[in-house]
Amino acid sequence: MGNHRWGADQNIQFINEYQRHECLWDPKHPQYKNKLAREAAYKTMMQATEMESMVDVVSKIRILRNTYNNEILKAKKSMEMADKLYVSKIPWLNHLDFIKNIESDRTENSATDNTLQTSTAESKIKKCTIRPKPASAPTPKNKRKLGDPLIRDDGVLEKVSTPKANARSNDEFDLFGQTIAEQLRQLPLGIALETEEMLLATVRKQRMRVADDEARRRNKVQEEIVCKDEIEDDKEDWET
């Protein structure tokens, strides 16, 4: 499969291949954190789906999982808001149900940093001399440990915010987004993709929290109205 827009059958084929390799999506699998096993699984998927690189495989997995989580969130929100139940029209969606019970706030790959460094080096073969071991590539100066929190870089913040400091259309969230984007660009591609997934998972979790709070507030108001009506009815019966 090339990089053209995929149809439903191609996505289903890819998902079925992904499901076969449990070490890529099941944190309880004994080889979930095994770099060699995961790399072999990505390579097998790349060959089975005729993709150009392992980076493309990882990117496709991330896109499909994000789409799946967003559709599940829409359905849950429609139920909590007592609206018409949202039913996704995406034909391949139910094929990804095997990840439904995986914690929504976990990143798709907690052990992919080393694997993706190999994949990133592979994706750069067209631009540089082929090396026998991608892992031997010089470590970028800006690389940091995955577990470290995002560090505010005042230099980057100033660089991003200064040109638009007087633009009234931009608020603090626009500047924050630009700052995060600038820092992600300084990371190796694999780490950047994983960090992006972590951020998206956090945002989804907060959206679900807000939806739950709104649903509880509406239910409480409705209960108070019903209770008030019952009291009024009882009062009228007593007076008569």
Features:
7 helices, MADF-dom, 57% helix, MADF domain-containing protein, elongated, single chain, 240 residues, mainly alpha
Structural description of this entry:
With 240 residues, the protein is mainly α. The protein has a domain at 8-138. It is built from 7 helices and no strands. The chain has helices spanning 8-20, 35-48, 54-80, 113-123, 154-161, 172-185, 189-239. The protein starts with 7 loop residues before the first helix and ends with a helix. Mean pLDDT is 73; it is low at 107-114, 121-138 and 143-167.
Identify the overall geometry: elongated
Radius of gyration from CA coordinates: 24 Å
For the terminal residues, how far apart are their CA atoms? 79 Å
Helical stretch count? 7
- Mean pLDDT, all residues: 73
What does the largest sheet look like?
none
Q: Report the structural category.
A: mainly alpha
Low-confidence sequence ranges: 107-114, 121-138, 143-167
Report the count of strand segments: 0
Helix content: 55-70%
Order of helices and strands: HHHHHHH
Q: Approximately what portion of the residues adopt beta-strand conformation?
A: under 5%
